Amino acid sequence: MEEKTNYREELFYKQKNGYDLVSKEEVIEAEKYSEGYKEFLNDSRTEREAVINSIAIAEQNGFVKYSGPDCIKKGAKLYFNNRGKALTLAVIGEKPMSAGCVIVAAHVDSPKIDLKQVPLYEDSELAFFKTHYYGGIKKYQWTAIPLELHGVVALKNGEVIDVVIGREKGDPHFVITDLLPHLAADQMKKTMAEGITGEGLNVLIGSTPYDDEGEDRVKLAIMSVLAGNYGITEEDFVSAELSVVPAFEVTDIGFDRSLIGGYGQDDRVCAYAGLKALVDTKNPQRTCLCILADKEETGSQGVSGMQSMAFEWVISELCKAENSEVIDCLSRSVCISADVTAAFDPNYPEVTEKRNGAKLNYGIGLSKFSGARGKSGTSDSSAEFVAYIRNVYAKNNVIWQMCELGKVDQGGGGTVAAYMANRNIETLDAGVPVLSMHAPFEVVAKLDCYMTYKGILSVFEAEPYENKYF
Ligand code: MN
Ligand code: MN
């Protein structure tokens, strides 16, 4: 019998730790890339700040604000700012829009705690903000940690005031208090979902009484500070978007510094990868787009969410210059829905099916489908498109892994993928595996961040995917 020493190697699908596959030079590249990402993440604590910082990076790299069909030329680098909360960036390709675009769609909103529209009150001579949390959070994780206040206050006269308190060294912070263990006998018997309630997420903001004899003296003292610093009255909160977010600095994690810890990595880690990849894309055949969407964490609805017609407006503007039809363009377009996935956590092995879970340091994670309870809500990418991506990654030495978010009956999650696929765009989910996703402090691996960037760049620059059907 013929000897087959490499038979296993040849026939088995074996995933390898990325560190066994990359060169030393590439580890250094990943390290360099991560420094840029950490800086971006540290300064981007809301969707609005992520948009501002993304525009700054884009402009440094020759992108200009879209100003009408006249600026659409081969090689042009354009951006479309959607109300300061979402952003679409484009590099115009050699081929016309009717040949389709290559799209990467990530989101720049993250779970946070928003102020209500009538937030300020005093109780027992302490001042607080009432809140309504945004996105899926485990509420107990947000108590007893330092918080910052970010957002805008829009005044009746049209002026918009930016608020960032807690980011600068020496700034004050805010906090949601929790009960001391000594008196938590009843609380500790509750489930983790019930131990802290939504209406219990009240942010402590001050304690000094105003120097007079009336009611609500602490509240008045707080309002007098806000009036002095920002020129606002209590009524102005009704037209404000203010959020409290964790105050933790973005930092390396581990003796080997191989990991990054920070707030809002879902999905700013993929947003940064998409942005950097587009900035680095040279002479693409087809027009390449990077979308940084808002409202993914609440279902992608609203004017700045991925379900918004704002997307069709951008495509229609790009098509106008050459009389292409939007629906033709969409039918030939492809999309990487760049969003994070759950990394296998050895502390909680029971929720993951180990043959199909994403692992840290195994590269960009591709999810053919998402959803829960029988793939409900998924767009399920086609086998042909997954094969195309595998081929692109093989040619470009991108380290990647196939993954699924958790065990079949454990739960699941969605991304913007379904909203792109519903538009007749061939779409695949791909992104960075995360530990402690949606917690105030999430963890990712540097190698995976870099491979996500490289994976997106290789798709932007690849030979176009040919849809055999139309
Ligand atoms: Mn996400
Ligand atoms: Mn999320």
Q: How much strand content do the residues show? A: 15-25%
Tally of distinct domains? 2
Strand order of the largest sheet: 1-2-3-13-4-14-18-16-17
Number of helices: 10
How many distinct beta strands? 20
Distance between the termini: 48 Å
| Helix and strand element order | HHHEEEEEEEEEHEEEHEHHEEEHEHEEEH
The structure class reads alpha/beta
Average per-residue pLDDT, rounded, comes to 96
Shape: globular
CATH architecture of the largest domain: 3-Layer(aba) Sandwich
Share of helix, binned: 25-40%
Question: Which ligands appear in the coordinates?
Answer: manganese (II) ion
What's the CATH topology name of the largest domain?
Aminopeptidase
Report the sheet with the most strands, covering strand number, pairing sense and barrel closure. 9 strands, mixed
Task: Give the oligomeric state.
Answer: single chain
Short summary:
By secondary structure, this protein is of the alpha/beta class. It has helices at residues 7-11, 24-43, 47-60, 217-230, 265-280, 310-320, 326-331, 383-395, 417-421, 446-461; strands at 64-65, 77-82, 86-91, 102-107, 112-123, 126-134, 147-154, 160-165, 203-206, 240-246, 251-253, 259-262, 288-293, 334-338, 341-342, 364-367, 400-402, 426-431, 433-435, 442-445.
Topology (SSEs and partners):
Layout: H1 7-11, H2 24-43, H3 47-60, E1 64-65, E2 77-82, E3 86-91, E4 102-107, E5 112-123, E6 126-134, E7 147-154, E8 160-165, E9 203-206, H4 217-230, E10 240-246, E11 251-253, E12 259-262, H5 265-280, E13 288-293, H6 310-320, H7 326-331, E14 334-338, E15 341-342, E16 364-367, H8 383-395, E17 400-402, H9 417-421, E18 426-431, E19 433-435, E20 442-445, H10 446-461
Parallel strand pairs: 1-2, 4-13, 4-14, 14-18, 15-19, 16-17
Antiparallel strand pairs: 2-3, 3-13, 5-6, 5-10, 6-9, 7-8, 7-10, 11-12, 12-20, 16-18, 19-20
Helix pairs in contact: 2-10, 3-5, 5-10
Bound molecules: manganese (II) ion (2 copies).
